[in-house]
């Protein structure tokens, strides 16, 4: 899986950070220390870490990921990363 999206709410920029969905690589999620959660009302799971996005981006860079783009969507910050 060469592409990865991470996101956080603007008011939660110190964490937690969403790092994957139910189809994400379990090994990568384990390396990041992510836990799988299902939010009340959703019929899908997401992986979260308690770290700030900056810390997650640093970890992913050390694993070979590079930021492709970043944007704000409403009150959410989203980063797209890619690994060769």
UniProtKB/TrEMBL annotation:
Keywords: Cytoplasm, Membrane, Nucleus
Domain of life the protein comes from: Eukaryota
Compartment(s) where it occurs, according to its Swiss-Prot or TrEMBL record: Cytoplasm, Cytosol; Nucleus membrane
Keyword Nucleus: yes
Any one cellular-component term (Gene Ontology): cytosol
GO molecular function: GTP cyclohydrolase binding
Chief location of this protein within or outside the cell: cytoplasm
Signal sequence coordinates: none
InterPro entries on file: GFRP_sf (IPR036717), GTP_CycHdrlase_I_reg (IPR009112)
One Gene Ontology biological process: negative regulation of biosynthetic process
PANTHER family: GTP CYCLOHYDROLASE 1 FEEDBACK REGULATORY PROTEIN
Family, per entry: Belongs to the GFRP family.
Name of the protein: GTP cyclohydrolase 1 feedback regulatory protein
Organism field: Lonchura striata
Lineage: Eukaryota, Metazoa, Chordata, Craniata, Vertebrata
């Amino acid at each position: 899986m060469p592409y990865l999206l991470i996101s956080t709410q603007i008011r939660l920029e110190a964490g937690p950070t969403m790092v994957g969905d139910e189809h994400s690589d379990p090994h990568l999620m384990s390396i990041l220390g992510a836990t799988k959660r299902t939010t009340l009302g959703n019929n899908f799971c997401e992986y979260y870490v308690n770290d700030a996005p900056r810390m997650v981006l640093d970890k992913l860079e050390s694993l070979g990921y590079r930021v492709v783009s970043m944007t704000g969507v409403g009150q959410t910050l989203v980063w797209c990363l890619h690994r060769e």
